[in-house]
Structure formats: C-alpha cells, structure tokens
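>> received
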Amino acid sequence: MTHPLYETRRDVAPYASVVLANNPNVMTLDGTNTWLLRASGRREAIVVDPGPEDLEHLKVVAAEAGTVVEVLLTHGHWDHSESARTFHEMTGARVRALDPQHRYGGEGLGEGDLIAAAGVEVRVIATPGHTSDSLSFVVDDGENAASVLTGDTILGRGTTVIAHPDGNLGEYLASLERLKAYGDATVLPGHGPELASAGKAAAFYLEHRAQRLQQVRDALGVLGPDASARQVVEHVYTDVPESNWPAAELSVKAQLEYLRSN
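>> returned
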C-alpha cells in the first residue's frame, strides 16, 4: 500500500478484515495489521494481534469487531501484543498466546489447537524462528479458500528478522518449509499487504535465506572464522540502509550460530 489508510477496516477475504495501526517504522513497515476474522453476516469476531498500546486503534478495532469472542496473538513482540491487557479489559474477551506472560483471562494457545467461533475455524500451527513463541493461524469459513495469518514469520513486503537469541534460524527454515506446503493459501501477514500464495512466499523466503547464508560463509572466508556479527553486516548488507543494520545484526547472529553448529 503506497498510502496506507490507518484506523479503517479493509475487507481482504470473505471472512477476514484488517485495521492498520498507525505505528509505522523500520521494523513495522506501514504499521501493525490487526485482523478481524468472522463469516459473512456475523456480528461477532475473532481478533488477531490487537497491536500497540494505542487507544484510538483499540476503539476502532472494538467497534468494527462487534462482539469480540477471542483474541489471539501470533507472538509477543510489543507491536502485536502491547495492548493485549487493555483490549481484554475493554472487551472482556480472553487473550490467548503461546507465551504465558501474554495470556489474559484464559488458557494458552499452541500447535494443533482449533478455535471455532464467529462462523470460522482457526487452526493453530507452531512456526518458531522469528521468535520462539511464533504461531501461524490457518483460517477458513467452510465455503471459501483458506488463508494463513503469519504474524512476522512471512511479511507482506521484504523479509523478516530472526530475533536472536530468542529467534533461531534452523527453526525458522523448518517453519518456512511448513508454510510452503499451504500452496495457494493467501498470506495475511502481521505487516504489509496480503500475498497471493503462501507456497510462493515461503519459497522466496527460503531462497533469500540460502543466499544470505552463502554470503555470510563467503564473508567469514574474507574476514576470518571469528568475525563479529557487526563485521559481517558491514561486509554483506551493503544493499540494506544503515538504519536497518541493527536488525540485520540480529539475523546475522542467528546465521553465525546456525553455521557454527552445523
């Protein structure tokens, strides 16, 4: 989206709408996508990732959702989860997450869980790597093609960060392989626009990671096997603005850990 329309519901699929939070920055792209899931004609909704602690955003999400029956978190990073407690208090809906510190009013959330509410079914798959608690949600209404909500595991634009030390590259690659199997399912990401094919998006990410790993290997050949992550970033990430280098350094630390342990 060239000119993102903040704090306005945008319908993306027959069962999925998004409200874009006004928190753009280097890491969040245009801002955080808060997803509303419900079958056509339903007045209740499941809300995914209420986003940052922004009362205006939460009021819009609550108004557009109607009765909030569940709140799900893809992972615990602040731009997805910071408002979870406030939104729980506003709506009374329980907040479910893999990480216990982000749960409010209810049980946890994890691999294999099925949430049936608001006329849709949401299947939970564990997709660690960006963070250890990252989840993705496969959603459909029984009538239309499925979509997959990927949080920060696959973004709508660019590539994501392996948030070392919590993030793990080996786990991330395995998660991408898992998402690749969803083929033509639409990607509903945590940031950026939706993507037409989970399979193609995951394949692109896997190719990008393979290229970066080779670049890191090559850099170590020049800089020496004990080179620091910062040295590798300065050598490899010349195509990335310096404002993104701190994030790149996290990913390089994960890459170095992966290479040195395999």
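>> The longest strand covers residues 120-126.
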